[in-house]
């Protein structure tokens, strides 16, 4: 399998070493993929997230950074929580923060010994990042990381439905 590929799937069901959670700064669950990962991993994930120290009141993981916890009831051994930027029109450093999410997550995956990691489309839900723009940032950031560090871990960009997977595939082929 290639070092970077796209798959349409429910990220909570994938047999990978690590899944990335599009979390919020509190890391206490939420909607979208965050809620789905918390539900699938079980209540132990929430307890592990609560144990992550706050870097300032209410913030366990600042935007652009990542934290790792066990995967608990997921097929994945690890959950890597990262906080993407809220879309503010594109001139507020959103692309740099989003790229940092991918780099920070891949750094943690490699440090954890993960040989495979699955990413959702970070920031494209309630945070409003345009999906095609986010897909290009994701592909560019992963490729740059792999160029600098090697092809492991293998990366899957996960689209939950056909439309989101197609957006990711088009970015990968560009």
Automatic annotation (TrEMBL):
Short name of any one Pfam family annotated for the protein: Macro
Stretches assigned to the Macro domain: 1-174
Any one GO molecular function term: O-acetyl-ADP-ribose deacetylase activity
EC number: 3.1.1.106
Chain coiled-coil ranges: none
Keyword Glycoprotein appears in the UniProt entry: no
Matches recorded under InterPro entries: Macro_dom, Macro_dom-like
Domain of life where this protein originates: Bacteria
Protein name: O-acetyl-ADP-ribose deacetylase
Root EC class: hydrolase
Keyword terms, alphabetized: Hydrolase
């Amino acid at each position: 399998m290639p070092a970077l590929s796209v798959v349409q799937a429910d990220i909570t069901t994938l047999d990978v070493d690590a899944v990335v959670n599009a979390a919020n700064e509190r890391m206490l669950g939420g909607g979208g993929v965050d809620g789905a990962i918390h539900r699938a991993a079980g209540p132990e994930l929430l307890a592990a997230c609560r144990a992550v120290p706050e870097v300032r009141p209410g913030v366990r993981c600042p935007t652009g950074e990542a934290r790792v916890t066990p995967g608990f009831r997921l097929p994945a051994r690890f959950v890597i929580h990262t906080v993407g930027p809220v879309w503010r029109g594109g001139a507020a450093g959103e692309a740099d923060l989003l790229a940092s999410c991918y780099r920070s997550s891949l750094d943690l995956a490699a440090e954890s010994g993960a040989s495979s990691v699955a990413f959702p489309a970070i920031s494209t839900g309630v945070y409003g990042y345009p999906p095609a723009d986010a897909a290009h940032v994701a592909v560019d950031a992963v490729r740059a990381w792999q160029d600098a560090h090697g092809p492991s871990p293998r990366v899957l960009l996960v689209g939950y439905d056909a439309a989101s997977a197609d957006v990711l595939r088009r970015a990968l082929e560009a």
